[in-house]
Write a structure and sequence with these properties.
It is built from 7 helices and 8 strands, in the order αααβαββββαββααβ. The protein is α+β, with helices and mostly antiparallel strands.
């Protein structure tokens, strides 16, 4: 299990709104975040701990959106290392790409435990937190990265990304869930 400190920091990070460029309808949703936060008049939905590897259809639909997420790995000294990431959901796992010279990659080599979190930018009471184990996925990392960019960006943002994207030393990390915690989704 991750230490309470790591879990607390990952949870706090997940509850912070991250302002990143988003696509189409997501941009309108992100713009309404401040108004929504001021208008919340009802109590948040109850938290749910799902079975270790099960995502409900509503969670899967949520995870297919281009939302900012955070991945928390464990530094060698035991402290948390949090990174805002693009991600892809696929067949019960969460996938990321990074380069092999980044801290999160080195951390997963020493200790594969990690926590992933994503919050609906329009409703802070709708979120998914996944505790799990990271492993290297053997798919083509450049193709995966291009697919993520096309999922998250469009127009000029995608054109700029194509000019600056680092493809060397790239790999794909797969987070296999050991526990899924959620809020704001219909009960199964």
């Amino acid at each position: 299990m991750l230490s309470r400190e790591v879990v607390a920091i990952a949870t706090l990070t997940a509850l912070c709104f991250i302002s990143l460029p988003v696509r189409g309808e997501q941009a309108a949703t992100a713009d309404s975040t401040a108004r929504t936060a001021k208008k919340i008049g009802s109590l948040p939905a109850a938290r749910e701990v799902a079975t270790p590897t099960t995502f409900s259809p509503a969670m899967v639909e949520f995870l297919h959106q281009p939302l900012p997420s955070q991945i928390t790995t464990i530094n060698p000294n035991g402290s948390p290392q949090v990174t805002v990431m693009w991600f892809a959901y696929e067949n019960g796992a969460v996938l990321f790409t990074t380069t092999t010279d980044r801290v999160k990659f080195r951390n997963q080599r020493k200790d594969p435990r990690a926590v992933f979190s994503v919050v609906d930018p329009a409703n802070m009471y709708k979120w998914v937190i996944v505790h799990g184990t990271l492993s290297v996925d053997n798919r083509d990392p450049a193709a995966f990265y291009r697919g993520l960019a096309e999922h998250y960006l469009e127009g000029e943002g995608l054109a700029q990304w194509r000019k600056t994207a680092q493809m060397e030393k790239r790999t794909v990390l797969k987070l296999t869930p050991t526990q899924i915690r959620t809020m704001g989704f219909p009960q199964k």
